[in-house]
Protein backbone atom coordinates (compact mmCIF):
# COMPACT_ATOMS: atom_id res chain seq x y z
CA UNK A 1 0.00 0.00 0.00
CA UNK A 2 1.39 3.32 -1.04
CA UNK A 3 0.60 6.33 1.10
CA UNK A 4 -2.11 8.50 -0.40
CA UNK A 5 -3.04 10.75 2.54
CA UNK A 6 -1.23 13.92 3.54
CA UNK A 7 -0.70 15.21 7.06
CA UNK A 8 -3.56 17.72 6.95
CA UNK A 9 -6.00 15.11 5.73
CA UNK A 10 -4.91 12.69 8.45
CA UNK A 11 -5.29 15.35 11.15
CA UNK A 12 -8.77 16.35 9.95
CA UNK A 13 -9.92 12.72 10.01
CA UNK A 14 -8.52 12.22 13.49
CA UNK A 15 -10.26 15.37 14.78
CA UNK A 16 -13.58 14.29 13.26
CA UNK A 17 -13.20 10.87 14.90
CA UNK A 18 -12.45 12.51 18.25
CA UNK A 19 -15.51 14.76 17.97
CA UNK A 20 -17.71 11.76 17.22
CA UNK A 21 -16.24 9.95 20.22
CA UNK A 22 -16.94 12.90 22.51
CA UNK A 23 -20.50 13.26 21.19
CA UNK A 24 -21.11 9.59 21.96
CA UNK A 25 -19.47 9.81 25.38
CA UNK A 26 -21.60 12.84 26.29
CA UNK A 27 -24.69 10.91 25.10
CA UNK A 28 -25.53 13.56 22.52
CA UNK A 29 -25.80 10.88 19.85
CA UNK A 30 -27.28 7.47 20.53
CA UNK A 31 -28.99 4.55 18.89
CA UNK A 32 -28.27 3.38 15.38
CA UNK A 33 -26.83 6.74 14.35
CA UNK A 34 -24.26 6.50 17.13
CA UNK A 35 -23.10 3.05 16.01
CA UNK A 36 -22.85 4.13 12.38
CA UNK A 37 -20.85 7.23 13.34
CA UNK A 38 -18.60 5.26 15.71
CA UNK A 39 -17.85 2.82 12.90
CA UNK A 40 -17.01 5.74 10.62
CA UNK A 41 -14.80 7.22 13.35
CA UNK A 42 -12.97 3.91 13.70
CA UNK A 43 -12.35 3.81 9.96
CA UNK A 44 -11.09 7.41 10.07
CA UNK A 45 -8.65 6.59 12.89
CA UNK A 46 -7.41 3.45 11.14
CA UNK A 47 -6.86 5.20 7.81
CA UNK A 48 -5.15 8.09 9.59
CA UNK A 49 -2.64 5.77 11.22
CA UNK A 50 -1.78 3.85 8.06
CA UNK A 51 -1.91 6.94 5.77
CA UNK A 52 -3.89 5.01 3.19
CA UNK A 53 -7.52 5.46 2.15
CA UNK A 54 -8.96 2.74 -0.11
CA UNK A 55 -11.64 5.14 -1.39
CA UNK A 56 -8.93 7.59 -2.48
CA UNK A 57 -7.22 4.88 -4.52
CA UNK A 58 -10.52 3.95 -6.22
CA UNK A 59 -11.26 7.58 -7.09
CA UNK A 60 -7.63 8.39 -7.92
CA UNK A 61 -7.01 11.04 -5.24
CA UNK A 62 -3.67 11.55 -3.55
CA UNK A 63 -3.16 14.21 -0.87
CA UNK A 64 0.30 12.99 0.09
CA UNK A 65 2.99 15.38 -1.07
CA UNK A 66 5.88 12.88 -0.76
CA UNK A 67 6.34 10.72 -3.86
CA UNK A 68 7.45 7.16 -3.15
Give a verbal description of the structure.
This protein has 68 residues and is mainly α. It is 66% helix and 0% strand. It is built from 3 helices and no strands. It has helices at 7-25, 31-50, 54-59. The longest helix has 20 residues, at 31-50.
Tally of alpha and pi helices: 3
User: How many runs of DSSP E, i.e. beta strands?
Assistant: 0
| Beta-strand residue fraction | under 5%
**Largest sheet, strands/sense/barrel:** none
The separation of the N and C termini measures 11 Å
Structural class: mainly alpha
**Mean pLDDT score:** 91
Offer a concise description of the structure.
The chain has helices at 7-25, 31-50, 54-59. With 68 residues, it is mainly alpha-helical.
Amino acid sequence: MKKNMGGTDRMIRFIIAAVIGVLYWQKIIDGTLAYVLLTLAGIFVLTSFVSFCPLYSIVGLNTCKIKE
